[in-house]
Amino acid sequence: xxxxxxxxxxxxxxxxxxxxxxxxxxxxxxxxxxxxxxxxxxxxxxxxxxxxxxxxxxxxxxxxxxxxxxxxxxxxxxxxxxxxxxxxxxxxxxxxxxxxxxxxxxxxxxxxxxxxxxxxxxxxxxxxxxxxxxxxxxxxxxxxxxxxxxxxxxxxxxxxxxxxxxxxxxxxxxxxxx
Length: 178
Fold this sequence. Notes:
This protein is an all-alpha fold.
């Protein structure tokens, strides 16, 4: 008689529980920021080369800082859209996969992970303060995306705090009842 193998059902953590789990990896201080030279900020290809070769922070290894990978992924996403426009115009025959593998020495899969974290970081800046590997973060991408879509009040904690400007200060002073 064969015994049926029963696989235990894992509970999907959503909402506040998942937000608290994610915050358990949060560190208030980020050790490094990538400083991109002003000259190269518009040429995304040069920015990516600078980040990959000059800094050496982008690697498939898990011990790299998430902040650096977020910034690299953001510029990789911009470069991807720029490349798609160039390809649609007929200016290039190379695929995006060929470019990142040959030029930047990044696998297509890792490139997708970097682009995802770059898009996420663009909207939720505090993601860079997580002390978690990019691969572990990506493995929870569905839960992260659901958290930010379904619980906007919790998602606000992950956005960059608004820096006070003169207009914000004047508006808040006008709303005060004396």
